[in-house]
Design goal:
6-stranded mixed sheet; 4-stranded antiparallel sheet; 10 helices; 10 strands; 39% helix
């Protein structure tokens, strides 16, 4: 579904992503792990066209997308849950979810999808008329994921969903991520919590200083002594 070849991202003269190549097959959940500053978020932003790439190719469902504007990617089935959530703070939960469906006009299905999001996150239903900016970080993360799901994506890009959240909230978020993946959605997960990311993924890529240095099945990466020493605290 997604094929990235030689992707480069630079900030001024500083290279953040140094010609990386990787792929995500349809129906897979793939983890991109690495330390803070490794280039993971820059990679996702480039895929979502929130950053211009300095070179390379990004193909989605066989088509080159590296020059398309972001809103066209949403219409074609790519949704990003950004680092830091990025909810609309002065809009209600319902309004945020409706914004996720801005490219759709099937009103009855949109209502049904909002209820589907509420089935994953009952707390959002309880507070449907609450302003998003008044919610906790965990609740905002739920909303950010729900908003992305409202566009009915084929490919979900998740950037650091566990960042800054209490362990019980992280557990809930990842239960939903697993459930979404089990429904057939393709997921590319960027996550500093390497153990958690690899436990829910089929495959993983390790990123260091803007380069992919290791790739393997997730279960093998979890057992890899270098990964365990560098990212699992062992």
């Amino acid at each position: 579904m997604l094929e990235v070849t030689g992707l480069r991202v630079a900030y001024g003269g500083i290279a953040a992503v140094r010609g990386i190549s990787f792929h995500v097959a349809e129906g897979e959940m793939v983890a991109l792990i690495g330390a803070n500053g490794a280039g993971k978020t820059s990679t996702l932003k480039a895929l979502a066209r929130l950053l211009d790439s300095a070179g390379g190719s990004v193909r989605y469902c066989g088509k080159e997308i590296s020059a398309l504007p972001p809103h066209q990617l949403v219409s074609q089935g790519i949704a990003l849950v950004p680092e830091g959530r990025g909810v609309f703070p002065r809009m209600t939960i319902i309004e945020n979810l409706q914004m996720g469906a801005y490219c759709r006009d099937d009103k009855a299905a949109i209502i049904a999808d909002i209820e589907h999001v509420f089935s994953h996150f009952p707390r959002l239903k309880e507070r449907a008329q609450q302003l998003a900016g008044t919610m906790s970080g965990g609740e905002q993360q739920m909303l950010a994921i729900g908003r992305a799901l409202m566009s009915r994506p084929k490919l979900l890009l998740l950037d650091e969903p566990s960042m800054g959240l209490a362990p019980i909230m992280v557990q809930k978020i990842f239960e939903v991520v697993r459930a979404v993946a089990s429904e057939g959605m393709t997921v590319l997960l960027v996550e500093q919590n390497a153990k958690l990311a690899l436990e829910v993924s089929q495959r993983g890529y390790v990123m260091e200083s803007g380069e992919i240095t290791l790739t393997d099945d997730a279960v093998n990466l979890l057992a890899n002594p270098k990964v365990r020493a560098a990212y699992l605290g062992e």
